[in-house]
Amino acid sequence: MTELNPNQKRRPKNVAEGKLFDLMTGAGWEVTKRGWPDFFCIRDGQVCVVECKPYENSALKATQRIVMRALAAHGIPCFRYDPSSGMNRLLVEDLEPVAPPPSPEIPETLEGKLKFILGRMPGLTEKVKDLDKTVATLVTVYLDDFSEEWMIEQAKSERRWVFARQGKPVLTTKKDGNKTILNWFRMRADDARKERPKLAGQERGRKAKPETGLDDCLTEERA
């Protein structure tokens, strides 16, 4: 038995693949479509598999370690490649399961919470000092009008937005019109301010009074 967790051996949605999945699992096999190395290489009757990573410190995913360890245990040469360190062979002992890192402690301050949430977004590769400056700007601009809970919820919403669309958040306004963290908060704040008069009117049991324009004032004076 391997260390595959339920998420790693999820039943495929494809009808034919789902039937095969049921057939194999019913026979006692553990089945996954994940973790297969990027390249299967053949030369003069020899074979090997290679997992390619963009950076030297890019770690193998848990499922990749499980699959490559099983391949290495059956005598198939397994390698990891990245442009900086080149090709490195991975032996069975190199692919032992790695304990998950401990859960990080969430800071107590508002600035710390915002940095913790925003700093874990995919694609946020800017320097930490830029994130510090962005968080300081958010707190300075919005904390007088909105609660800490509101700011934290908007940061979480921004993070979910980026994950769902696989976007690349940026920290400062761009001329090309890319959405930014600061613009996200500005748009959410504008929406919240527009809702406040409506909610105030509803709480009093009547509709909110529409905004009075200059023409309305002049009309009232003439009347």
Number of strands: 4
Radius of gyration from CA coordinates: 27 Å
Q: Segments where pLDDT lies below 50 for 5+ residues?
A: none
**What strand line-up does the widest sheet have?**
1-2-3-4
Query: What shape does the CA trace take?
Result: elongated
Span between termini: 87 Å
Determine the strand fraction and express it as a percent band: 5-15%
The chain-level mean pLDDT equals 80
What is the string of helix and strand elements?
HEEHEEHHHHH
Largest sheet: 4 strands, mixed
Characterize the structure shown.
The chain is of the alpha+beta class and 223 residues long. Among the domains are: 34-95, Trna Endonuclease, Chain: A, domain 1; 110-203, no CATH class. 44% of the residues lie in helices and 10% in strands. A four-stranded mixed sheet has the order 1-2-3-4, covered by helices on one side. A hairpin with a 3-residue loop joins strand 3 and strand 4 (86-90). Helix 3 packs parallel to helix 5. It starts with 14 loop residues before the first helix and ends with a helix. The relative contact order is 0.07. The mean pLDDT is 80.
